Amino acid sequence: MFSAIVISKTEAGQQVQITQLDEAQLPEGDVTVQVAYSTINYKDGLAITGKAPVVRKFPMVPGIDIAGTVLESSHPSWKAGDKVVLNGWGVGETHWGGLAQKARLNGDWLVPLPSVFSERQAMAIGTAGYTAALCVEALVANGVTPDQGEVLVTGATGGVGSVAVALLKTAGFSIAAATGKASEGDYLKQLGATTIIDRAELSAAGKPMQKERWAGVVDSVGSFTLANACAQTRYGGVVTACGLAQGMDFPASVAPFILRGVSLLGIDSVMAPKAKRLTAWARLARDLDATALDVITTEVALAGAIGAAADIMAGKVRGRIVVDVNR
């Protein structure tokens, strides 16, 4: 028997509770993992609170991130004792996820835990940090260099934003961090931000073309924020879009793209192929200062994950929440 958070759907609505499960109840998969840590991401917050129909099957164990040790494997790439990480692939939505002490998974979804990180550190990074690495990889691969000017990071105190700031600092960029939390300026500067701007500057309707400011953008907010970021991006600049904290809409004009040659790149972390995942984790292993993880991380026990999900939806969370599923 092992402990897990289980989301059930009843006539009275969605119910979430910690439950004891038997290993025989685990879903199909060719690798069984002893989970050490998971996380609470924005998507986990949606799933646990029921504020969006993220969960596609019930009952469901949420948790889109997993770090742990292989217990059993019939997959050719993995053997008992291997340290592994999982991000996305619909885990916690259509397949039981990481907010449990055990998980059974498709071995193709796993990547090796980089040797420089502990399991806890890997979850301090989690899908948010891995997504940030995908964004930074995309900026660099598309020609954005530090000498071209500042890179804007929106939602900077969130998980994606915090890791993006830290990675961009190591890569030599000057970073403008947009946040609605004025009190977090010192936190963002500690991570590497050079300029702090109020998110209100970006969050309302703006002109289709605005003063050129950014060589590149990492946006996890969407809606007017993304539209304004595009309108302020310099000629030939690159905008990466990976989130929708403000909204799914994109009230923008084609002007920045056809008059300034701005590129808008969509960043998907859920179904990204393994090669991209390995490249992103290699950047994290090479460029992410481990001390930054201590700054951005809060740890909770499995029982605390339910409250943490509500907090992340209420905008009360700074950085990353790591869940120790074994306490």
Describe it for me?
- With 327 residues, this protein is α/β, with parallel strands linked by helices.
- It has two domains: 2-113 and 292-324, Medium-chain alcohol dehydrogenases, catalytic domain (Quinone Oxidoreductase, Chain A, domain 1, Alpha-Beta Complex); 127-266, NAD(P)-binding Rossmann-like Domain (Rossmann fold).
- It is built from nine helices and 15 strands.
- The strands form three sheets. Strands 3, 4, 5, 6, 7, 14 and 15 form a seven-stranded mixed beta sheet that branches.
- β1 (2-10) and β2 form a beta hairpin.
- α1 (42-49) crosses α9, α2 (119-141) crosses α3 (159-170) and α2 (119-141) crosses α7 (274-287).
- The longest helix is centred in the middle third of the chain and has 23 residues, at 119-141.
- The radius of gyration is 20 Å and the shape is globular.
- The two termini are 15 Å apart.
- The mean pLDDT is 95.
Low-confidence stretches: none
Let me know the average pLDDT: 95
Could you please say which CATH topology of the largest domain applies here?
Quinone Oxidoreductase, Chain A, domain 1
**Extended strand count:** 15
Helical amount among residues, as a percent range? 25-40%
CATH architecture tag of the largest domain: Alpha-Beta Complex
Top CATH class of the largest domain: Alpha Beta
Rg from alpha-carbon coordinates:
20 Å
Roughly what fraction of the amino acids lie in strands?
Answer: 25-35%
Helix/strand order: EEEHEEEEHEHEHEEHEHEHHEHE
Structural class: alpha/beta
Main sheet makeup:
7 strands, mixed
CATH fourth-tier homologous superfamily of the largest domain: Medium-chain alcohol dehydrogenases, catalytic domain
What is the count of DSSP helices, taking H or I runs of 4+ residues?
9
**Number of discrete domains:** 2
Quote the distance from N terminus to C terminus.
15 Å
* CA-based shape: globular
